[in-house]
């Protein structure tokens, strides 16, 4: 088979796939059939929202994380009506950006503060839902709790050395080539194994480690500027921007919530 024939075969196969999807989709009575499947995943939040950012489908994990008893307490409400201020407003703004055609969100590292005031790290994905004409009619998304490291991976020992360097020196500038040398790997290798073992990029691991330390320090008396310096941010404003982008609130707002 030459290149042209191969390309033609690929087009035919793709068309057949689309036809099968359309045929099966037309026969499924409930387009939200995945809801009970996500109910069985305690470490994954799942939701579908309409064009106004209101919950249409949620799984049981989200119900528990919001501190309510039943799904009905969330349906028809936006995140701004469900989550504490200003977390809810931040989540709604994120939704509206996706709904406006701003592109999907892929594995965004986020620190959530649950009703128990316990922090939890997750990776969030959101993507727009479109009708047959391509118009955006809603969005769907998941937030996955960060899994434990895959210690059975043969490269775990080497990568763990780079993680140790991050944990011990997060207050200093950390560059990918230095982490790679510590693990006796190339830059491409360490990036690949970080994702496989920790489900994070090296940069995300650095951010997580620094903000873990910052969230602990914010419970104490140190100034935000001193905490920024202690966590590797020479610029106070850069620390505030990173903290808000990841946590959804400023360091001062987070401190206020911890003390409330």
Give a brief rundown of this model.
The protein has 260 residues and is of the alpha+beta class.
Describe the model:
This protein has helices at 3-27, 35-39, 60-65, 79-82, 87-99, 156-169, 176-182, 187-198, 202-217, 224-230, 236-247, 251-259, and strands at residues 44-50, 55-58, 105-113, 119-130, 136-145. The chain has 2 domains: 35-145, Beta-Lactamase; 156-259, Homeodomain-like (Arc Repressor Mutant, subunit A). It has 260 residues and is an alpha+beta fold. The chain has a 5-stranded antiparallel β-sheet with strand order 2-1-5-4-3. It has 12 helices and 5 strands. The mean pLDDT is 89.
Overall SS class = alpha+beta
CATH topology-level fold name of the largest domain: Beta-Lactamase
Report on the biggest sheet. 5 strands, antiparallel
Q: How far is the N terminus from the C terminus?
A: 70 Å
CATH architecture of the largest domain: 2-Layer Sandwich
Order of helices and strands: HHEEHHHEEEHHHHHHH
Q: How many H/I helical runs?
A: 12
Strand content: 15-25%
From the structure above, extract its key features:
260 residues, alpha+beta, Beta-Lactamase, Arc Repressor Mutant, subunit A, 2 domains, 12 helices, globular, transcription, sequence-specific DNA binding, AraC_XylS_family_regulators, Tscrpt_reg_AraC-type_HTH, HTH_AraC
